[in-house]
């Protein structure tokens, strides 16, 4: 298992791979820019002291967008061969959301037991 | 790994070096299972924090809105977000078979992570001076458990990536070391994912 099984790549193939990777890097730079932008907006909205009923959903939504960018572009989840990765993370998030909703309900929303 | 080939010419460098071996493939799948478990772990800590937020025993204890300061949280976010980008650079250079650049960007990642961790330690010390400790209130316990677990993950990541830089410094790049770098990068991104929720739920919703 130690030796490399790669067939020698031709010059043009190598060139093609490089361009593809540079293209992907450009996408990652764009998503980084968006993450910075979302962070600025989120902090800005909270610093401006707007109505919290209006700010909270937006800030939470922007966090979810940032996490999707991080997973899909930075952690390459958009690439082929990440079906299991998606399945695992989705399962983890399913449990995670269940924990958070349950705890919020029993402490803050539901009537005292 | 006695027969491992190091620093092969780019013509023979696999298209996906991190999953070119069976070990690399296993590492990749296994690590995503681990990250799913981490998701559930952090979610349970978030749930605990949200349930116990501002639960203090008396009026002399500070609440979230009086405690947290946005500028510090903002700077910490920038540190961690940028370090996530620099580890993307490291993986990019790893795939392009550029060992020196990969090492350089891993080192930048470690420095940014160190910056983040020092700010977090500074923050904790400040809070302790203000009477907000692990033991003074349920709010404090939940806060330090959540933030502390995240900070501990950052510390592990720093030791891990530093170890990779030092260990690989002499032997260079192979499909064996490429899988290791890729896994560490995934871990580092995940730390940033958790931080996105921390700065949103703990800091942004905390000061409102």
UniProtKB/TrEMBL annotation, chain A:
InterPro entries from the UniProt entry: Cyt_c_oxidase_su4_prok (IPR005171)
Membrane-spanning residues: 29-48, 54-75, 87-108
UniProt keyword terms in alphabetical order: Cell membrane, Membrane, Transmembrane, Transmembrane helix
Subcellular locations according to the entry: Cell membrane
Database matches in Pfam families: COX4_pro
Stretches assigned to coiled coil: none
Bilayer disposition of the protein: Multi-pass membrane protein
Protein known as: Cytochrome C oxidase subunit IV family protein
Automatic annotation (TrEMBL), chain B:
Residues annotated as domain Heme-copper oxidase subunit III family profile: 29-207
Domain of life where this protein originates: Bacteria
Keyword match Methyltransferase: no
Function: Catalyzes quinol oxidation with the concomitant reduction of oxygen to water.
Topology within the bilayer: Multi-pass membrane protein
Name listed for the protein in its UniProt record: Probable quinol oxidase subunit 3
Spans traversing the lipid bilayer: 29-52, 72-92, 104-122, 142-166, 186-206
Species assigned in the record: Salinicoccus siamensis
UniProt entry keywords in alphabetical sequence: Cell membrane, Membrane, Transmembrane, Transmembrane helix
Coiled coil spans: none
Subcellular location: Cell membrane
């Amino acid at each position: 298992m130690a030796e490399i099984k790669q067939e020698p790549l031709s010059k043009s193939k190598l060139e093609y791979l490089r361009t593809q990777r540079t293209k992907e890097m450009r996408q990652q730079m764009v998503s980084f820019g968006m993450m910075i932008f979302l962070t600025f907006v989120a902090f800005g909205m909270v610093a401006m002291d707007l109505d919290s009923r209006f700010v909270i959903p937006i800030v939470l939504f922007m966090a979810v967008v940032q996490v999707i960018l991080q997973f899909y572009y930075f952690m390459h989840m958009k690439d082929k061969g990440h079906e299991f990765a998606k399945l695992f993370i989705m399962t983890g998030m399913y449990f995670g959301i269940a924990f958070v909703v349950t705890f919020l309900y029993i402490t803050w929303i539901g009537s005292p037991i | 790994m006695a027969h491992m080939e190091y620093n092969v010419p780019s013509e023979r460098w696999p298209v996906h070096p991190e999953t070119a071996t069976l070990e690399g493939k296993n590492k990749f799948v296994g690590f995503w299972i681990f990250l799913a478990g981490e998701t559930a772990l952090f979610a349970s800590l978030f749930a605990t924090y949200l349930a116990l937020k501002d639960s203090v025993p008396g009026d002399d204890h500070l609440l979230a809105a009086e405690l947290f300061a946005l500028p510090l949280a903002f700077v910490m976010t920038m540190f961690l977000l940028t370090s996530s980008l620099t580890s993307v650079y490291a993986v990019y250079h790893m795939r392009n078979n550029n060992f020196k650049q990969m090492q350089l960007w891993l080192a930048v990642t470690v420095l940014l992570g160190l910056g983040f961790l020092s700010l977090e330690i500074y923050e904790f010390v400040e809070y302790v001076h203000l009477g907000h400790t692990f033991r003074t209130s349920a709010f404090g316990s939940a806060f330090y458990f959540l933030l502390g677990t995240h900070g501990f993950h950052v510390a592990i990541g720093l030791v891990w990536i530093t170890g990779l830089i030092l260990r690989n410094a002499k032997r260079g790049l192979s499909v064996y070391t490429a899988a290791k770098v890729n896994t560490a990068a995934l871990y580092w991104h995940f730390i940033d994912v958790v931080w996105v929720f921390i700065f949103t739920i703990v800091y942004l919703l905390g000061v409102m």
